[in-house]
Amino acid sequence: MAAPPAPHGLSGATVGALVASGEAWLRAAGVGFGHGTTNARDEAAWLVLWSLGLPLDSPLAGDADSIQNRPVTPVQQARAASLFEERIRRRVPAAYLTREAWLAGVPFYVDERAIVPRSLIAELIANAGIDPWLSAQTCQVLDLCTGNGSLGVLAALAWPEVMVTGADLSPEALAVARINVDKHGLQERVRLVESDGLALCPGPWDLILCNPPYVNAQSMARLPPEYRAEPALALAGGEDGMDFIRRLLRDAPACMSEDAVLVLEIGHERAHFEAAFPALPVFWLETSAGSEQVLLITRQALAGV
User: Where is 225: in which H helix or E strand?
Assistant: First the structure.
């Protein structure tokens, strides 16, 4: 059930004052973060700047070009307050209210039909962390469990020579992905397929990117309301979080080219992953969250299981 608005409110005659007031309101309300921001300050800045129609990277510190002292009108203050109140009352990710999320510096449309994009695989695409595993023969890329299509779009932008397929079990999520493929003008290079895992994605794929449902049952039961507002289909991975991943690793070798690799995000489920696949040789990839949440597996390793 949605929580009632916290009795704090939003006040301030400048951008900086609104952000400070919004930060205090979010803290008092005890909302959850993790859908583009990790703390009340950053989320307050996002909501204020978005409500004012200002760039989200607008400087707010004490620099000469800071906009923190820019005045706001009563109408602008009321608009921002309404957005904060809805965020607190409904306990949904801010991205569902703004209909926009950013990943690796790229904007994406999002709504309640798909989870808010936040995959660490985006970092690896942007910083060339996967590139050493690719070759001139890498031309067919699969973004499995594509959700709103963000990883598929980022892959197409990063590697102009490849063709990308985004696949998902949810037709609702694929409708959101279509918006993003069109938004970035990639209709000729990114196609979308409704598929349960690899069932309708025979390949052969040179690279598979996958941010699957991997949250274990115990963790699902403890998720904050903001996460429960997202489609459970995209999060719940069964008792140990490995239900989808077991099928994927079983089916993947037959769908991969000889030198293909699979890049897989598993969040905080490394212990469950290693318990499920104790003999599987993998490479753990370094991200901003450390080196235990995204792994890479070669086709040869998968075929040997």
Answer: helix 225-228
